[in-house]
Amino acid sequence: MEAASMGKQPSKPRRVVLRLRDLDHSKAAVLNSLGSPASRRAYEFAIDEFIAWYCSEPRLAFGRIVVARFRMSLEARGLSSSSINQRLAAVRRLAYEAADCGLLSPELAAGIRRVKGVKQLGRRSGNWLTLEQCSAMLNGVTGEDLRARRDHAMISVLIGCGLRRSELAALDLEHLQTRQGHWAIVDLVGKGGHIRTVPMPLWVKDALDGWTSAAGIAKGRVFRAISRAGKAWGTGISENVVWHVVSKRCTKGGLEHIAPHDLRRTCARLCHSAGENWNRSSSYSDIRQYRRPSDTWVANRTSVIQ
């Protein structure tokens, strides 16, 4: 009995105050557990914000009281309930990973889990454009230079096809194919790894052809950067370029607070308001989510740029 008691080693007490290297280690564990690049980007931003706030405050135990104070600081900044809840979810995930790594006691991690988020009252409708505003935005992209052709093609795809920024930046020429006599973006890998096929109106295809023929793009990514000399270079663009183009063109058109996801919302709302009939394709069983637009849909989209 005495030998057995001597063989046991006392358990190492877990920390209650995490240092910067401990937080960085837990942050890396959180980011490695996420599969979506968008989720990793959002969680990394939220965790970095919490670490900066946690290190600037008096060094207290990483527990429920600290997270509640962090939520109060977010509320004082006037952030929306969805933004606050998203940041709190990242902090909870940080606490879970720290507890799994042996850096935080399970009691403190359980207390952090009990911190409630902010209740969201109502439902945000968001921003969307009318047909007249879409026409003004497309016609506002004037000029025959290469940059104007690219911006017009980008905005046309955002309004006509409703792509996300990441999907537009990753758009490849191989994605542009015909199905039953209609142009479509085939096998597009979107958010969360979902694969879908998006119908493309003829006026969007004409805008893309005008850009690709002028830039001499025959393969690879559809959209490229523009040099100071006015020539296309590189192998693609980033999502920030899409944001900058939309913000710049909306400001010139007199539209404020319009983001690329608002154009995606506009495409969905115009399709719903026009009352199109979306028919599932029966001839191409290998494409599960391909839907062919009706003639009314093509006519309504064509009238946007006239």
Description of the molecule:
The protein is mostly helical and 306 residues long. The protein folds into two domains: 12-113, Tyrosine recombinase, N-terminal domain (DNA polymerase, domain 1, Orthogonal Bundle); 131-302, hpI Integrase, Chain A, CATH 1.10.443. The chain is 53% helix and 8% strand. Strands 1-2-3 form a three-stranded antiparallel beta sheet, with no helix packed on it. Strands 4-5 form a two-stranded antiparallel sheet. A hairpin with a 2-residue loop joins strand 1 and strand 2 (182-189). Helix 8 runs antiparallel to helix 10 (202-215). It is elongated, with a radius of gyration of 25 Å.
By CATH, the architecture of the largest domain is named Orthogonal Bundle
- Average of the residue pLDDT scores: 79
Query: Strand order of the main beta sheet, please?
Result: 1-2-3
Query: Unreliable runs, pLDDT <50, ≥5 residues?
Result: 1-5, 275-306
Features:
elongated, DNA polymerase, domain 1, 13 helices, 7 strands, 306 residues, two-stranded antiparallel sheet, mainly alpha, disordered C terminus, three-stranded antiparallel sheet, hpI Integrase, Chain A
